[in-house]
């Protein structure tokens, strides 16, 4: 007879060793997040594709006319379809908002997979990880709101400070030097906003690692960043920068291929998926690094 108590505990999740919190150990978690990002991209692109079909028709060339050099046809069509463009823009922002909020569940699921395993050393299955993502949702949402407010405040204050610096130094130092100083202030502002982004992810990792609520997670994440500000910021920044490289490369190739049908469309679709996969892999790598960092913070301050 099977020991039901032992059988139930077999699926209980235990904390992984710090060094085992690696994204490369969990490829299926990366695939799951890639699937979510792809579905979100389709949700975002569908209204725009529908509008393009309504404007340019669904003939042999389709919306390929919009890809002609100079974009004359596109620039001519947009002003004459302002209601449709407004609807597409609204739908796009709605999709982004939905992705930012609903995406907290698969994000929490991925963090759970990166942090915990069963007694047999297996990763949490889809059902278990998603249920953990749902449980973590209130704390993740609180962190999202706090980070959004903090970044918004930093950007507003930084933009205002840059304008004041430019105005104060315009006459005494000249226009060129004043604009350089304004640019420096804006650069520092972007750096501060990115540091808040890094602290945000560290706070998310702390919520999952220590099973605490949002406020406590925010304090632990901020402490982790404070203990190693340059190291943590650089770990976040180089991955964020690297994630832009496939976007730029795919945009260049897409521009060269145009909007033609057939093999060009297949190549564009494949590039789009590769971009998403690369960005998700880099994102997972950073989240694993954040988990190891907050775990090490606990041992350092204990």
Structure description:
The protein is an all-alpha fold and 302 residues long. It is 81% helix and 1% strand. The chain contains ten helices and two strands. A two-stranded antiparallel sheet has the order 1-2. The longest helix is centred in the middle third of the chain and has 48 residues, at 126-173. It is globular.
Quick summary:
This protein has 302 residues and is mainly α. It has helices spanning 4-9, 27-56, 72-80, 82-102, 104-115, 126-173, 175-210, 214-227, 229-257, 263-301, and strands spanning 14-15, 116-117. It has one domain.
Element layout with pairings:
Elements lengths: L3 H6 L4 E2 L11 H30 L15 H9 L1 H21 L1 H12 E2 L8 H48 L1 H36 L3 H14 L1 H29 L5 H39 L1
Antiparallel strand pairs: 1-2
How many beta-strand elements? 2
Secondary-structure-based class equals mainly alpha
Enumerate how many helices there are, as a single number.
10
Rg calculated over all Cα atoms: 23 Å
Low-confidence stretches: 1-10
Beta percentage is under 5%
Total count of domains: 1
Q: Main beta sheet, described?
A: 2 strands, antiparallel
Mean pLDDT across all amino acids: 83
Helix fraction, binned, reads over 70%
């Amino acid at each position: 007879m099977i020991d039901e108590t032992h059988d139930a505990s077999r699926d209980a999740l235990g904390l992984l060793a710090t060094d085992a919190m690696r994204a490369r150990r969990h490829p299926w978690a990366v695939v799951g997040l890639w699937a979510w990002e792809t579905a979100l991209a389709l949700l975002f692109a569908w209204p725009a594709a529908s509008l393009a079909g309504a404007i340019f028709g669904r003939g042999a060339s389709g919306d390929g006319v919009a890809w002609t050099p100079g974009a004359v046809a596109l620039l001519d069509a947009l002003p004459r379809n302002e209601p449709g463009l407004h609807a597409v823009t609204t739908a796009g922002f709605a999709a982004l908002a939905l992705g930012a909020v609903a995406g907290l569940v698969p994000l929490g699921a991925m963090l759970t997979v990166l942090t915990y395993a069963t007694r047999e050393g297996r990763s949490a299955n889809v059902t278990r990880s998603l249920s953990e993502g749902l449980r973590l949702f209130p704390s993740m949402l609180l962190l999202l709101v706090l980070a959004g407010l903090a970044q918004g405040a930093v950007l507003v204050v930084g933009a205002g400070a840059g304008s004041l610096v430019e105005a104060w130094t315009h006459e005494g130092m000249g226009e060129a030097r004043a604009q350089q100083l304004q640019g420096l202030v804006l650069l520092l502002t972007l750096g501060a906003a990115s540091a808040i982004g890094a602290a945000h992810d560290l706070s998310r990792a702390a919520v999952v690692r220590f099973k605490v609520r949002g406020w406590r997670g925010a304090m632990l994440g901020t402490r982790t960043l404070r203990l190693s500000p340059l190291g943590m910021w650089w770990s976040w920044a180089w991955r964020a920068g690297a994630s832009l490289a496939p976007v730029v490369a795919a945009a260049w190739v897409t521009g060269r291929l145009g909007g033609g049908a057939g093999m060009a469309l297949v190549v564009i679709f494949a590039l789009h998926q590769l971009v998403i996969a690369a960005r998700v892999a880099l994102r997972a790598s950073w989240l694993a690094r954040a988990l190891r960092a907050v775990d090490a913070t606990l041992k350092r301050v204990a």
